[in-house]
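Recall the central idea of this unit: under ordinary conditions, the amino acid sequence of a chain determines the structure it adopts. In this exercise we apply that idea directly, starting from the sequence alone.
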Amino acid sequence: MAGIDRTGPRVSVLDTSPIVAGSTARAALENTVDLAVLADALGYHRYWVPEHHGMRGVASAAPAVVAGRLADATGRIRVGAGGVLLPNHAPLVVAEQFGTLEALHPGRIDLGLGRAPGGSRRAVDAVRSAHERTAKGFDQQVAELLGYFAPAGDPDDDRVRAVPAAGNAPPVWILGSSPASAHLAASLGLAYAYAHHLNPADAADALRAYRAGHRPRPGGGAPATLVSVSVIAADTDERAEWLAGPTRLKVLSRLRGNRILLPSPEDAAAYPYTAADRTEIAARSGGVLTGSPATLRGHLRALLAATGTDELMVTTPVYDHADRRRSYELVAEIAAALGR
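Accordingly, the structure predicted from this sequence is:
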């Protein structure tokens, strides 16, 4: 099994633990563990899981819990949150969770932070009330969180402490899909992860804005970026397009007001598309890169050049887990070629 050439760009994994039609949350989480073990063996750099609430097609709702399981199941790859939606939580609790993970798995944990709600208004209100989510600005919440990771000081100081977090600080990333999030990450001196898979159009501008405005924080380093991108790889272009059919139908169904689980490629191909449907799909398909290794190599080179990043984080929305594994094997081969 060929591994990734470390002289090329870093390649990582973003996994929502998708629950496809006919499957369950348990199966989706078992697939996540299996894929993380494969990614570790293939040489992927990091493996992130997000936070979503009340979405029946997404099993990744508790990133700290999943990250701990993945760290136990793997031996080298970095694992973490991509990301924790900080307004949904008390910063103290997030610091305790990820400080504990870093203490148990030193040097292998990442903490990505976002400010999106992560679900419907009703679901998010059940997680934390709107008043609690908005009582402090996001930048204030981030500052409070970072403070809990500072090394322990005077033991007689009566301030509240996140005991396992003190001195056990994982790298902190700001997640976003707009120039506004880039400016925030730059102003805080933190690393920045851009969600190209959500908003391809603003990727280059956001990364430029981040680098131009980056202000190092005390103890911080140089600007650091990654770009998450949706990729479906197969041995042929035709096979990749076949595997992409379900995600295209899922997007179309959402636009038509009908939220569905990811269907099989057979069901997607059998759907009675209208001319208007096909036009809509064509307009919405730019964010998913599909193809054989020869085709994707050019797409990924262009994305690296346009954004100036040296790390791509790949998410792969396909129905069958075996096809998803194969896609990541092929992306590893592509990454090795990009390093030459």
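The mean pLDDT is 94.
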